[in-house]
Structures are given as structure tokens and as C-alpha cells.
Amino acid sequence: MASGALARLLVGRRAATAPLLARPFAAKARASRRPQEPDFPSEDEDDFAGGEVAAGAPTEGISKPLAEVLRELGKRVPEALVKTRVEDGFSMKYIPWHIVNKILNVHAPEWSGDVRSIVYSSDGKSVSVIYRVTLHGTDAEIYREATGTASVDDTGYGDPVQKAEAMAFRRACARLGLGLHLYHEDMS
């Protein structure tokens, strides 16, 4: 997906009286050689939606109560942003780390993240990363940590440390509600 298309997806709907600052979710793609972008649900549905963005800067989450930030992150992520990977014969849905990062930038621009530790197993066959994501609201801040583990021999999706970090980052964000619906779908 082109970066411009992703930005339009994350920006969301504009107010009816506001100047044209961003394209709404349901906007059609421009006529080009790229495949047409999918239509997305309206804001009335319980799906991921953005807010207004002034002058091109992602400022929606600044000066918002933490409950409002968490409510936005808890909405469904459009299927067009969800990827599927097959490992060991199992199909898994996930949101790529860079998409999760952009969603956080739009809805919680005052977030921060830290790699808390990187530990190799005693036999040297795997590496585990602990990652912390912190959200800052006007009334409080909250953090969640998660781990990700990758085999040192598995370089199919890049460097094992990077793979473990991306996994831990996505899981920490899921503990804050972002993409959590994907885990519930796996259970059914």
C-alpha cells in the first residue's frame, strides 16, 4: 500500500464545515496505475476511524484524556491493513509493526516505546525482547510490556532481534487494545 494511501486511511473523516484537510475513509482512490483502495466503514460503525488533522500534522491525541485515546485504539483495524502469514502450517493474522506505529502516531502522538531487554537463550538458539509502550493522556499515563521471541536460525522475515522486537511491540500495543480483535478472531 502506498504511503499516501495509508496516510489517507489513518487521517479519517473531516468535519462537514472544516476545510478540506484530509480525505475520508470512504474516499475512492485517484485514477492511477495502482490498484484501487478499498472502501472503509463509516465512523458510525465500530471500526477504526480517525479524526481531523490540522495542517498535515498528526495532533489528534494531544491533550486528550487517556480513556479517549484507549477507546480509539480499541476500534477494529480495517482488513486492508491486516496481513496474513503462515508459519508451521498455521495461518496468522497480524498488523505490520510500521502500520501499528502510524496508528499510534495518529491516535496517541505522545506515545513512547522502549526496548527493555534483549536476552539470548542459554543454548543460543533464540532471542527474546521485552518492549514497553507508554501512552500519555491529559489525566494519566499507562504502559504495557510484552515479549517477543524469535529463532536465531529463522531469518525468513529479517534479523531475529528485529523480528522479536516487532512481535513484542505489536503485543504490547494489543495489550492497550490496538488490534486486540485479531486475537479474539483466532479463538473462534
TrEMBL record:
InterPro entries from the UniProt entry: RAD52-like
Extent of Acidic residues compositional bias: 40-49
Example GO BP: double-strand break repair via homologous recombination
Superkingdom, natural source: Eukaryota
Official protein name in the record: SnRK1-interacting protein 1
Coiled-coil residue windows: none
Annotated spans, Disordered: 26-58
GO molecular function: DNA binding
